[in-house]
Amino acid sequence: MRSPLTDSLRSTSLRTRLTVLNAAVVLLMTVATLLAVRFAARNALYDDADAELIAASREVALAVHDLDPDEAAIVAELRRKAQSQQPRGWFLHFLTEDGRLVWKSDGCPDEVASFPPSRLDRVENIVQVGPFRYVRQRIARTNGTAYHIRVGTYTKLLDENLAQLLRILLAVGVVLSMATPMVAYWLAGRATRPVANILRTAERLSPTRLGDRLPVRGTRDELDQLSSTINGLLDSVARHVERQEQFVADAAHELRGPLAALQSSLEVAIAQEDTTPDQADLLADILEAARHLSKVANDLLILAETSDASRPVDLGPIDVTAVARQAVGMFSGVAEEQGVALSCEAAEAAMACGNPVGIRRLISNLLDNALRFTPRGGSVEVRVTPNPVTRSVTLVVRDNGAGIASHHLAHVFDRFYKADAARTHGSSGRSGGLGLSICRSIAETAGGTIAITSQVGTGTTVTVTLPAAAPLSPAPPNTPPSAAFA
Fold this sequence. Notes:
Blueprint: H1 4-11, H2 14-67, H3 71-84, E1 90-96, E2 101-104, H4 110-113, E3 125-129, E4 132-140, E5 146-154, H5 155-204, H6 222-271, H7 277-307, E6 316-319, H8 320-338, E7 341-346, E8 351-354, H9 356-372, E9 379-387, E10 392-399, H10 406-409, H11 435-445, E11 449-455, E12 459-467, E13 483-485
Parallel strand pairs: 7-9
Antiparallel strand pairs: 1-2, 1-5, 3-4, 4-5, 6-8, 7-13, 9-10, 10-12, 11-12
Helix pairs in contact: 2-3, 2-5, 6-7, 7-11, 8-9, 9-11
């Protein structure tokens, strides 16, 4: 069963997961290190104290051997030693083998003095009694008896030193706990930066930006190998797309001449006096098909030009408002003939960055589509809005026609894709399926975006966002429509 933490980590970014995991590992290692240091420091303090106690007990034993049997001299020497070690908290206990107390220092605790001598005291033994630690030792005398000495100290002093060390270690641990996530986040950012570059480049890739490549840092690590592999794939894709675009352009170019000649011949044939009505109708149908093929060939050439990333594109400031009004004026006659209300609502000036010819073609294609798919009595609205906050210009073409089914929306920008021929309300009913593809290519070439929303029976809205070419002023409220055509 997966834990909530695991599910949470899987839903976050790679950088966040690396940060959490690295911070957790470092913090666990820090805690383990602090515990190990604490254990080692305690052992070292107690070992040093034991070594000093043993050394002191041996000095006392030598003094007892030298001064025996003069107990008064032995007690004087022990008192001197006890006074010299009093700042360190040491104490001395001196007694005979039968338990008679000879002398003890003022600091000797009752817990130690109450223990009787033992045969085990023949060797140096370390004993811990409550908060006291001492060395006990048996010293043989020349008369066959023995003395017993106990040299000890309060472990409270050792514990205080250890507590001070632990406070320092705890402060270090707190600093590490605070710094570790920040350092881990920075390191994770450096580690995932190549991955972020790969994602950004992949997001920018399009048929009009096939020249983008991932940076290779020269580290020869796995990420460099991944970048090189993806770059090789992009090279292959770019060559394939270039060959395809060239083939489409060449084919369209070769078709334009014969189709133009075919149209001329058909128009001449229709104009002949000896042409029967049936023949004229047949020739008219053939002429319409030839015109449709000619339009498809022209659209293919336009699409090849706008999709060619190697072809330089003349981008400059263009007043989208003026272009939109001009296009609405051009299509007003068609809209009136079809019984569709065509209107334009735009700011006084909306300067965007783009190719003038391309932007005109984009608006014309959108209006042509909207009019062909809007029935008599419907309406088509064009709106241009500058946005000074996002430094962009938004063009919206909205109709209340038949709309597009949701399963078609994902493909409407694909070449030659036709959602439903029955939706067309134009005179010819013919569409090459390239209009929206050309619009998307023009918008992306200008550094903009295009999106479409639609609902069956309600209508369709196409939104084009272009980068602004100059500082924009907010549109005045309640801007009246600049042109309206019924």
